[in-house]
Amino acid sequence: MSAPALATLLGLAPHPEGGWYRRTWTAPTTTSTPHGPRPSATAILYLLDDVSAWHRVRSTELWCWHSGSPVGLATGGDGPGPGAPVETVLGPPGAAAGTLPQREIPPGVWQTARLLGAEPALVSCVVSPGFDFADFELAPSAS
């Protein structure tokens, strides 16, 4: 199934970093952060069909692979812009050496994702404290 057709089927909207998404869960509890109250956690479905722009989030993000192509998930440090990328593979166990179905991105670390196959990849991203676009930053070259 094509990415646009799958996005429509799942009720996903375009994401600023690329791909499509829809929030599927917000924890009923809140937590205080230096930037204001946030849900204790949130989750989205995210459909990647190419490459996501370099970006970072102020919270820990857990990527969970569901289906489609494996994903190269790269981190680029926590400096003012992305540094030298370090890539891990998110996908079905056994797809390649070291592939795992979930990966953690620490708070404030630059990240990007790219497909490692022809099919779009469907993942969930769980963010804690919960995601707020006020805590999201695209890399200067990506904005």
Describe this structure in words.
The chain has a domain at 1-25 and 45-78 and 86-122: Sandwich (Jelly Rolls). It is globular and about 40 Å long. With 143 residues, it is mainly β. It has one helix and 13 strands. The N and C termini lie far apart (30 Å). The protein has one helix spanning 3-10, and strands at residues 13-14, 20-26, 30-33, 36-39, 42-48, 55-57, 60-67, 71-75, 86-90, 102-105, 111-115, 121-128, 136-138. The mean pLDDT is 96. The chain has a six-stranded antiparallel β-sheet with strand order 1-2-5-12-7-10. The longest helix has 8 residues, at 3-10.
Q: What tags apply to this protein structure?
A:
1 helix; three-stranded antiparallel sheet; mainly beta; Jelly Rolls; six-stranded antiparallel sheet
Short structural description:
The chain is mostly beta strands and 143 residues long.
